[in-house]
Design goal:
176 residues, alpha+beta, Arc Repressor Mutant, subunit A, five-stranded mixed beta sheet, binds FE2/S2 (inorganic) cluster
Length: 176
Amino acid sequence: MFSPEGKKQVECLLKRYPRKQNALLPLLHLAQRENRGYLTSEWLKHIAEICEVSPTHVEGVATFYTMYKFKPVGKYHVQVCTNVSCNLCGGEKILEHLEELLGIHAGHTADDGQFSLEEVECLGACSYAPVMIVNEDYHENLTIEKVSELIESLAKRKEEWPKRILPVIGKNSAMV
Ligand code: FES
């Protein structure tokens, strides 16, 4: 199921761990990226075969973590933190502004598939509140103006799918 480039990355990942099942989390990440941002039961089975564990085990792990998605997400997946620090610094207002800008409520994807919006718990960057992530990029110390500019520039991009959705896993990759 992996692309030729994805297969190379799978090989690279498996070499890093003493047991195949230790590579489960990064493999799920890789599969999710290859499948444009979400996992399916076929992908979970495929990962189970690679890791030599049961599909039930893989499903249990994948459904435990909120970073794995099981339904299609937009080309730009916007995740806004509204936990305490961010909320005190205007996180709720940022979320409301995004809902208005994108024309969708949190938890939804726009009909054209461009943007998904999600309200999330602490992103571990409280010192830079309010914070959001777009795909894998952090955007910190947000203001209404910054958010508007970012969304406008993303909406103008012509790329079919963000290039970084297919990661480079090298020796020094911080992915795992
Ligand atoms: S509360 Fe938002 S990053 Fe921690």
